[in-house]
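Final report, Chapter 2: Outcomes

The project's central promise was a pipeline that accepts a single protein chain and returns its three-dimensional structure in a standardized token representation, suitable for archiving and comparison. That pipeline is now operational. To close this chapter, we reproduce one record exactly as it appears in the project archive, with the input sequence first and the structure output second.
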Amino acid sequence: MSVLGRIFLVAKREYKHHAQSKGFWLTMVAVPVIAALAGLIPQWVQENKPARAFTVIDQSGGAILADIDATIAADNAKRALAALKDYAADNIPPESVPMLSPMAPARGDITADDVAVFQAWGGVEKAKELLPKLVREGAPAFNPPGPRFVRVEPPPEVDPAADPAAIGTALSPYLRAEKPIAQTAPAYLSSALIVPQDYVLTRPTTAIQYWTTNINDFDLQTLVERALTAEAQRAMYEEQGMSRDAVAAIEQRRVALQPFSPDKQESGGEVEMKDRLLNIVPLGLALLLWMSIFTVANLLLLGVIEERSNKLIEVLLSSVSAEEFMAGKLLGIAGIGLTILVAWLTVGLIIMINGSGPTVAFAHDAINLILSGPYIPAFAFYFVVGYLTIASVFLGLGSVCNSQQEAQSLLTPLIFVLMLPFFLLMPMLEDPNGPIATTAGWIPVYTPFVMMVRLSTNPPWTEVVATGAVTLFFSILVLWAMARLFKSAILRTGQPPRLIEMWRMMRRGS
């Protein structure tokens, strides 16, 4: 059998051995699913929090209570409007949605003016009346989200005219869920606001007290603080002789800078929201590259240690040379890595495409960007050179170790060095042509991950080619050195050699 035949035979054995393991299948499916759940679960939890009951005791005359009620109503309407826009994007043909309708896609964040227009339009009731005539056949019914907060009256035994501290004491059993505040959900009191008698919104001498046992839940507190701050500012403007309409006109005035990019001159240069979102794609590819290389390199390390410990390596090397064995293992595990990559991308895209309207649009834009740009050939090249460098090192170190514990002692400092790009990805994304990114791009072990991120900013092609050439030369040099170490140490017994001994083995090659 030829040399290539023996290498492919080892590669086939290696691929088949790992492809039949449960860990391989779990890795393929679990990583994209966990990544998706990490993004979706916090959002799902936030959207599905049960309504929280709160009470307000306003000793200052009732104006603060009215402002809080208006704030809660506006919050409910804003959430309903956001849900309506998402529902329309998923279930109504675009041509059936009037552009000035609340059902039209949002242009940026939903503002207070959008909410006011929605409420004047008729709110949820108007939407439920119109939707059956507009949605596609078989579309589910529109179910607006329930309220986040429900104001309830204070318990009858609480004296609303008492000292705020006494009121807080009286409310304590309800705030600790020792007593229910109502017979129906939400049955227990989550928080209470007590407005002191001498409180004046524009010239406060005391503070509104916010009572709760859940001191890490800031949702209601933040919502009320922002609303009352805005109301206090309006009142102070009015005190200076400005009408409420004039104040509203001033508050609605926004000065915006329209971003342009020289990379989009063919389409006028204007930067759209999807252009900003699609900058995430190179970052995602860099993370995917980093995870895939380290996943399969670790398989090489564990495989060699296992074969050394059970003496299988001696049987295998009786049929192939050490160089052929190493090349076959690198090739076989590379196939495992590519299989995992394809699975991750496929599962990830399936999850995104089956998400909500904006998620589907982003998935399609991301696919188009990847297919139209230099990302596929760049990813393939950087995977090869990054894999050859890191996997060769793992394979070489595995050849001198008899157990995972010995390998960990050698790999720990190396892992810290190799993980540095992971911590630099976000700073490099924010300043891809800054000194950190440009310097790290010339360090061969970091080049694949750094340049993957920088591709979205169109770095000079001379820099891309030069850093790629340096990295390719470095990966070949590492592969050559690790092959000599592997050949010298694979059948060695006893304690792992010291670093100086490993250096001598690489120099001798036997």
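Archive annotation: The two ends are 24 Å apart (CA to CA).
This record, like all others produced under the grant, will remain available to the consortium after the project formally closes.
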